[in-house]
Design brief:
Elements (H helix, E strand, L loop, with lengths): L3 H32 L1 H6 L3 H6 L1 H19 L6 H14 L5 H17 L5 H28 L6 E12 L2 E8 L13 E7 L5 E7 L9 E6 L11 H9 L5 E4 L15 E6 L3 H14 L5 E7 L8 H9 L4 E7 L8 E2 L14 E5 L2 H13 L7 E4 L18
Parallel strand pairs: 7-8, 7-11, 8-9, 9-10, 11-12
Antiparallel strand pairs: 1-2, 1-6, 2-5, 3-4, 3-6
Length: 401
């Protein structure tokens, strides 16, 4: 993979690049959007840019990839690359965009590090970049070829369901009345909307019905934001303006947090709106007659805030050997256990495969508790909504995802 000469140079310069990677990514995005403002308007998540989350995620992925190559010169971190490629494919990223990123990223590195970027250093980090970029291009090409849908497709809202005060489910059918391609439980679709200022913003939402449904179905939680940090501008648009009969643009389904064909015991742990991929997984398990133990763990503010709770309970009840354990910070009496997730008294069978979705602190806490109970790190898989900030702290990154 990485040449010996470049590996030595990257190893020697990784501390300096790592220390400055935050400044580098900040300068990179400033240069990129100055040269290509349409990318911020119509492709990149403006909320993540304003909050700095996307900068952190990019910095983490670059540092994690370079560190992996230095330590494992004959291999590549396919788990990390697959996750990024699925997100890129859902956005419609094309190979022609990678040279643009290279141009502005390496100009930013030169600006921040100055004379430290010799020809040798530039060549070594260019090799790192194109190893990562070409791997992503290849994976994304395969994903596009495997998809039954090319580009964006129009879907009409056929039903809108108010799940809680801040969560709405949308059910859609294709405008062209054509076939509905399959997907895997746990995957998501990108939804593109045009906002009041003319920007076309894209967000990903997990599908909440099991594969085989004639519809696309996803739940959207309203996110609070403001003018300075426009988090939630798409979710608020969907809540306020999209009704039955309206049309949305959806990508093909993507995502690597999917159930494997296994008879192993399972644990599905979620918090907040992270419940959405778990609902599709539970329905699929119920439809398939999964017979091994299934432990369903969920954490939320209160029973009233627990979106899709009825589905959570109903699908679990259809399984031969399943139990639900719900944790609520408020009003837990009679509905669940009080406080945050504590697996101390939750039985976790040997050989359990775990799937996690929710805020990072929640997933880190659950992962630590599962490992303490003997679950193999390689059997713990996770999904992050938004930029994968777990990669921004590679020393704490999970061994498998």
């Amino acid at each position: 993979m990485l040449s010996e000469q470049s590996a030595a140079t990257v190893r020697a310069t990784l501390p300096a690049v790592g220390a400055a990677i935050g400044q580098i990514t900040e300068r990179f995005y400033a240069r990129l959007f100055e040269a290509h403002p349409e990318l911020l308007r119509d492709l990149f998540n403006r909320g993540n840019q304003a909050s700095g989350a996307q900068k952190q995620a990019l910095a983490g992925s670059i540092a994690a990839f370079a560190t992996y190559l230095v330590n494992n010169p004959d291999r590549r971190p396919d788990v990390m690359l697959d996750r990024i490629a699925h997100k890129h494919a859902s956005l419609g990223i094309v190979p022609e965009q990678y040279p643009i990123v290279h141009e502005h990223l390496f100009a930013a590195i030169a600006e921040i590090l100055g004379d430290a970027v010799t020809e040798e250093v530039a060549a070594a980090w260019t090799e790192v970049y194109w190893l990562m970029a070409n791997a992503l291009i290849a994976i994304e090409k395969r994903l596009y070829e495997q998809s039954a849908q090319t580009g964006w497709r129009e879907w009409k809202v056929v039903e809108r369901v108010e799940e809680t005060d801040d969560v709405v489910t949308f059910k859609l059918r294709p405008v062209d009345d054509g076939p509905v391609p399959g997907y895997r439980a746990g995957q998501y679709v990108s939804v593109g909307v045009t906002l009041a200022d003319g920007a076309r913003q894209i967000r990903q939402y997990s599908l909440t019905a099991a594969p085989g449904s004639p519809e696309r179905q996803f739940a959207v939680k309203r996110v609070t934001g403001d003018a300075a940090t426009p988090d939630g501008e798409v979710s608020n648009h969907l809540h306020a303006h999209v009704r039955e009969g309206d049309v949305l643009q959806l990508s093909a389904p993507y995502g690597d947090l999917v159930l494997e064909d296994t008879h192993a015991p399972l644990l599905l742990a979620s918090a907040g709106i992270g419940v959405t991929p778990m609902i599709a997984m539970l329905e699929q398990l119920a439809d398939a007659g999964h017979g091994a133990p299934v432990t369903v763990v969920h954490a939320d503010r209160s029973p009233a805030a627990h979106a899709l709770r009825a589905d959570h309970e109903a699908y679990a009840a259809k399984l031969a050997d399943a139990r639900t354990v719900f944790f609520y910070e408020q009003d837990a009496e009679g509905a669940g256990r009080p406080g945050r997730v504590d697996l101390a008294e939750v039985a976790v069978p040997a050989g359990t495969r775990a799937y996690l979705c929710g805020p990072l602190p929640f997933m880190r806490a659950v992962r630590e508790q599962l490992i303490a109970k003997g679950v193999a790190p390689a059997d713990i898989h996770y999904e992050v909504f938004g930029p994968d900030l777990w990669l921004a702290q590679p020393a704490q990154a999970p061994a498998a995802a």
